[in-house]
Amino acid sequence: MATAGRHPAAEGARLGRGAIPLVAVAHGSRDPRAAATVEALLERVRQARPWLPVRSAFLDHGPPTLAQALHGLREAVVLPLLLTEAYHSRVDLPAALAEARARDARLRVRYGTTLGPHPLLLDALERRMAEAGVAPGARDTAVVLVSAGSSDARANAVVADLARSWGERAGWWAVAPAYASAAGPTPAEAVAALRAAGAPRVAVAPYLLAPGFFADKVRQSSGADVVADVLGPAPELVEVLLERYELALAAETVMASA
Fold it and tell me: Which PANTHER family does the record match to this protein (predicted)?
């Protein structure tokens, strides 16, 4: 895994020669807790790399838009604050990026990959489980890994693969995927199935970046014994975000306006 901060461009920035700004784009939510969580995550990125200019943007439900966040920049690394590759990362964000670039012929953009999948996200999930009182790999505990869900079957398959990997690595009684929308099983269905299979205790691990509608829905209706917190500004996400930034810097492809 790349070590954050050691890319030549990043090192040069640390020495005062300027850094290409990082613009992190989240989905956005009507719930103000979501934007606050994004800002808390990015503040930890700023603390880890004080020389790196960091801006936030949202695809929906409030400013700044991506175009607003990119305004005045000549060059930027745009990173999606999304946990899986799905419609937002494949369609919405590139469309917003194309619109922003069309407005400014000088703008050069490197477009990075989503936060997930990444092994460190399992560490972050285990951190949240431990904070909820569930020791990582507790053999008397079955886990339901809950994502927001997507109409894109590929994104849901990534979550299923992550659940399988987590079960193989950690030693839980079982790990099952579930989806808060657009696909099945629902969290309540997955919890009920694990209980029917004999699980002594069932915990829910939200594979969600921030609090909001889906997180509240899962907490209120899953029927689990324990529901952990969302990933939020976990230090593992800071490390993943910085790694994605460096990988984008190292890529040769730069999106430039026509």
Answer: FERROCHELATASE CHE1 (PTHR33542:SF5), SIROHYDROCHLORIN FERROCHELATASE, CHLOROPLASTIC (PTHR33542)
